[in-house]
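Homework-ish question, so no full write-ups if that breaks the rules, but can someone show me the predicted structure for this set?
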Amino acid sequence: MLRKKEKQIVSDFEHRKADPAGPSEISEAYDLGEAETFGKLMLRMFRENKLSAVSLLVILLMILCTILAPVLTPYGETDMDLLNRLQPPSGDHWLGTDEGGRDVLTRLLYGSRVSLMVGIVPTLLSMVLGALLGVMAGYFGKWTDTVIMRLADIVLAFPSMLLAMVIMYTLGGGLFNVFLTLTLMNWGSVARIARSETLRLKKSEFVEAARSIGVSKWKIIFRHILPNCLPTLIVLFTLNVPAAILTESSLSFLGLGIQPPGASWGLMVNMGRQFLYNAPWLSFVPSAAIMVAVLSFNFLGDGLRDVLDPRLRKQ
Amino acid sequence: MNKRIQKKGICLILVLAALLTGILLAATAGAEEAGLLRTAVTYDITTMDVAKTTEDYMIPMNVFDRLFETRMEDGTAKLVPSLCTEYKVSEDGLTYDFTLREGVVFSNGNPLTASDVQYSFERLLVLANQNTDIPLEVVGGQDVMDKKAETLSGFSVTDDTHFSVTLKAPNAGFLAELSSPAMSIVDQESMSDGFGVDPAAMIGTGPYLVTERITNDHYTLVYNDKYWGAEPSVKKLVVRVISDANTQNLMFQNGELDLIDLDKQDSAIVQSQYKTVYADRIVSVRKVGLTFLALNESNEYLKDVRVRKAIGMALDVDTMIAALYNGDATRENGIIPTGAWAHNDSLEGFAYDPEGAKSLLKEAGYEDGQISFELSMDSTATGSIQLVYQSISQLLDKVGIKATVKSYDHAAYLDLRGSGKMDAFIARWLLDYNDPANIMLTFFGSADNTLHRSLNYPDAEIIARVAAAPAIVDDSQRMAEYQALEKKIIGEDAAWIPLFEDMHLYCLGSRVASFTPQWAGFSDFYVTDVVLKD
Amino acid sequence: MKRIVQALLVLLLVSLMLFVMLRIVPGNPVAVLMGEHANQATIDRLTAELGLDQPIHVQFFRYLSGAVRGDFGTSYSLGKPVSELMGTAFVNTLLLSLAAALFAWITGGLCGLLAAIRKNSIPDRLFMGFSLLGISMPVFMVAMILQYVFAYWLHWVPISGTADWRSFILPAVALGWNSAGSIARLVRSALLDTLEEDYIDTARAKGLGKSGVLFRHALRNTMLPTVTMMALQLSALLSGAVITETVFSINGIGRLAVQAITARDIPLLQGTVLFSTAIVIFGNLVADFLYTVLDPRTRKEA
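A: Not a homework solution, just the prediction itself:
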C-alpha cells in the first residue's frame, strides 16, 4: 500500500518535471467528488501516521520557540563575553558559549527566527505567486502561457545555489534580501505544477458547466480551480520548505547570507567549524537543528500525501 | 532467493569496502621531495610587480634584491648590505655615493649595473601607481612623475658599479628605506609588458625564480643557481591558496604543509592545539606595527574630540588581548609601536572607563543612542580581528554609541578607505622599514595622505611638522620631535584609538629545522631564512 | 527537435537576465578594481577599454558575439580570460560530479535494493534510516564531518585540493550523499511496487527463477525513473558542488563562482553561472531524450 503511493508520488513529480502537461494521478483521483473536510483528513492523518503527528508538533514547537525567543532566554542575541569563550555546556549556559562568548542556546533560538522563517515564509509567498501565475498560464493560455512559462523555465534552469548567489549579489546582503531571494527562486516549479493541474481541470465537467452558465473567468479560477490544486500544492509546500532552509543555511555558511554577529543556523555551523576539536557542539547543535527541521517537514509531507491521496481511501 | 541476493549484495559491499581501505592505507605513505617547502595563504596575490602593491611582498622579497636589507641579528633589526657593498654620505646629508656588488647577474645572465638601479627608481615614478614616496625624495623625482623629464636628475651613474643619489632634503632614514620591498632592483633590458603577470618575465637577482603561477591555486618558486649569495636550504617553494583557515589548520596537522601562519587561526585553537602538541615548533616574532581603531574626523560626530576620547574610554582592550590573543599582544598607546626606534614607553593611553565615557558624552551634549556611524570591515580580516570588531561594537553600544559593523570585500574596502569616506575601521600597519617616518608620514605626513587613509586629521601645522621631521639630522632631537608629535596627535587630539601590537606566531612542520621570520613580523618571509632538516 | 530550439531560447533569455541583473548593481567595477591610488584618468581609460560606457544592449551584443566564439571576457580579479579559468575549473567539477554520481548510484541503488528485498525488517529500517540521513543532512555538514574524520583524524586521504585521485573521494561522497538518499528511497519503492505487480506472478508461474524475475523485470522498470532522476539531479549536483568545492578547496566552477561573488568580478560570475545553467539545460534535454527512449508509453504519444 505504502510503497505504491510512494512510487506513484515520486515518479509523478519526476514525470511532471519532464513533461509538465502530463496527467496528475493525485488530483485526478481527488476531484472524483469525495468531499471529506480538511479537518477530518488531518484527524485521520494523526490517527494513522504517528510520525507525521509528532513532526507537526515538533514544527509547532520550533515556531513557538522562534516567537518566544526573547522571553525564553536572559541573554541578548549578540551579547559577547570574551572572557568566557568556547565554554562547554554548564548551568549558566545550557549549550555552552561560542567563539565570541555568546550563549549558544540563545543564538539557536534567535537563529531559528532566521532559519525557520526563511524556510516557511518565502516558500509560502512563492507558493502564492507560483500558483497564481501557473493557473493564469494554464487557464488563459496563448501569450500569457508562453510568457509565464518561459520565465519559469529561466528560473528553473539555474542550479539553486547559483541563482541564490546571483540574486543576493544584485540585491545586496541582509535578511530581507534573503527572503526575497528565496521567494524568487521557488515560484517556478510551483507555477509548472499549478499550470498542468489547471490544464486538466479546465476540461472537467463542473468547469464546463460554470462556463456555460456564464460565470466569469476569475470566479472560476478562484472558486473551482485553485481550491482543487490545493492538495498538490500543500504537499509541494512541505517539500520546498526543507529545500529553502537548506539553501539559506548554505548561503550563510558561505558567508553570503546572514552576516555575523547575526544568528542563523548555517552561520553558526560555519563559525563553529574551526573548533570541531575544542568545542564540537558549536557546529553540531545547529546542524542537528537543521536536520530536525528538514526531517519534520519531510515526514509531515509524507503524512499529508497519505491522506490526500484518495486511492488509499478506497482501500 | 531473497537470502541469495542478500548474500550477494553484502559480499559485494564487503569486497568494495576492503578494496577501498586497502588502496587508501597502502597509498598513504609517500616521501616528500627533498628541498621542498609547502606553505599556504588565504588569498591570492593580485600582482607580482611590487610597483603596484603595498601588500604582495613574497615574490619581490625572494625573486629580487635591494641595495640593503633589514635582517634580524641578535634580536635587533639591523641594516645589512645587499646589492650595495659600500656607501658614503656627504656632510650635508644630501648626497649618497654607492658601490654595487661585483659580479651579480640577473637570472637571464644580464649583469647588474648602476643603470638598472636608476631604472628601478624611475620606473616607480613613471608608473605612478603605489610606492612613489621614496623615489620622490630624490632630486628631479617630481619631474619624472609629472612626465616633464625622462630621467632622474638627482641620480648620477659614474660607471657600472658606482653611482650617487642626491636627495631634496636630508633624511636619516633613507638607507633604511632602501631596504623596503618597493625598492627592488629590476633589469632594465629585459623589462616587458608581461612583468608582474607572466612568471617568465620576473627577472631578478634574487635567490629564486617563479616557475609557475596558477591564479587562485598556487605559485612555485625554484632556486636560481645564478644567485650571488649562499645556496639556500630550500630549493623549491610551493605556496597554495587555501582560503579557508580551518582547512589550512587541518592540512598542517595532517602533514600537508611545512609551515603554517598562525595569524589566521583563532587564538583558542592556537592555545589548545598548537601550544600543547607543537609547543617546541612554534616560532614567534613581534609584529613591529600597530593595530588601531581609525576615526574619520570628517564624520559629523567623530569630528568632536570629546566623542573620540569617549570612544577610547569605552574600549576594554586588556580583555580583548587576554581573550583573543592569549595575552600575546602588548597594549599600545600612541603611534610609534613597541620595538621601533623612538617608541615612547611612558606614553599614557585611555583607561577603560565606560562610566567616564558616558558622562563625557553627556557633557558634550549627546543623547544616548544619538551617535551612530558605520564600522567598516574587510571581509578578508582574520577571525580574531572580526571578533574585535564585534566586541568594539558591543562595548560602544553599552555607552550609548551605535557603531554598526559592515563587511566589504577586499577591493571595495580599499576603495572606500582610499576615498576618505570610511567612518571608522580597524587598521593595522606594520613598518616597511625601521623608522617611525614610515608610520608617521603615511598617516599624517600630508593632507592627501590623511585623506586617503580616511582619517582627515585637520591640524595643518602638525602635519607640516610631521613632514619636516625626517630631515632633522640629530637623532635625539628627531626622537624628541616624533614623541612630541605623537603626544599631540593621539594624547590630545585622539586622532585614532591605539589598540595593541600583537605577536606573529608560526608553526613549523616536522621537515623544517629552523625559521627566522621577517624582522617586522610580515606574513611574507625570505625563503632563505628557512632551513630544512636533511 | 522543438525541444532543442526551446532550450536554446531559454539559454539566451538566461544570459540576458544574468547580464542585466549583474549590471544593475551601482558602482563602477573598474574603480573598485583599481583600488586606493587610482586616478580618474586611468579609470576612464579602462572603462572605455572594457566597453563599460556603452549602452546596455550594445554591451550585451558584444558579449554574445564574444561568447559564441568562446570569449567570455576577462576576469576582473584574476586578470585571466574567463574561458581559460573555467576550462580548468570545469574539468575538476566534472570529475567531482561524476564521482559523486557514481557514489550515489552505487550506494543508493544497493541500499534501496537490499531494503526492498528485506522489507519491513531491521535491515530495511536501517537502510531507510541511512537514506533519511542522506536527504536531511546539509551538504556542508556531511563535508565537514567527512573531512574531520577521514582526512584529519584517520589520515586516510588528503584534506583538500586535487593533487591525486584520492582527494576526490571525500568530496564525491559529500556531494553524492544527498542524491544517494533520494535514490535509495526511489529504488526501494520502485522495486517493491514492481514485485507486487500481477505480471510478476505470471512470470513466476511460468517458472522463471526468483532472481531472474527480479533482475529482468523489476530492475528494468526501476531504470526509468532512476535515470530521469539522475539527469535532473544535475542541477542539485552543481548546487552542492559550490559548497563541497569550498570546503575541500577544489578549484572547480562552484568555488570559482563564490570567489567571483566575493570579488565582485562580474565577467567571472557571469561566465560560471551561464556555463552551469547551460549544463543543466543540456542535461534536461538529455533526460527528456532518455525518457522517450526508455519509456515505450511516451514514445507512442510523441
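Now go work out the reasoning yourself. Hint: Chain C touches chain B through 49 residues (CB under 8 Å).
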